[in-house]
Design a protein that fits this description.
single chain, alpha+beta, eight-stranded mixed sheet, 3 helices
């Protein structure tokens, strides 16, 4: 089911400052950048081998990420695990009684995904993603 860690997402206050810091400090190349209007965030990727670091910043004060940032500050937001078939993974999680945030897959920056609630995964928000073909 799970094929790899796709990305680790980090919530930041300032995307430009954070990108520069990760690039300069760790030498990671700066990759794609996207605005996800429906989620009210802007994201940027830093490739790290076969995985990515995803930096996320809110673009509105009302978004879930803005509320998360205000409550918890900058830091790790979620871990994304890649799956071959998001529909099959979702069905499996439902059958196992997993606590889900999404009952149906949503459109994510890199494909279709759903999230497992941190209450069921020992405090970690987990995204299961079927990545778009590259």
């Amino acid at each position: 089911m799970i094929t790899k860690i796709n990305h680790i997402a980090i919530v930041v206050n300032d995307l430009d400052v954070s990108l520069q810091a990760y690039h300069e400090l760790l030498g990671l190349p700066i990759g794609a950048r996207k605005v996800m209007a429906e989620q009210e965030v802007e994201i940027a990727f830093l490739p790290a081998g076969d995985s990515l670091i995803e930096l996320i910043t809110p673009i509105t004060e009302e978004s879930g990420v803005a509320k998360y940032l205000a409550k918890r500050g900058e830091g790790i937001h979620h871990i994304c695990l890649e799956v071959e078939d998001v529909e099959a993974a979702l069905a499996e999680m439902k059958a196992k009684g997993a606590q889900l945030i999404n009952q149906e897959p949503i459109q994510a920056a890199e494909g279709r995904a759903f999230f497992l609630h941190p209450k069921g995964t020992h405090g970690v928000l987990i995204e299961l993603l079927e990545a778009d073909p590259q």
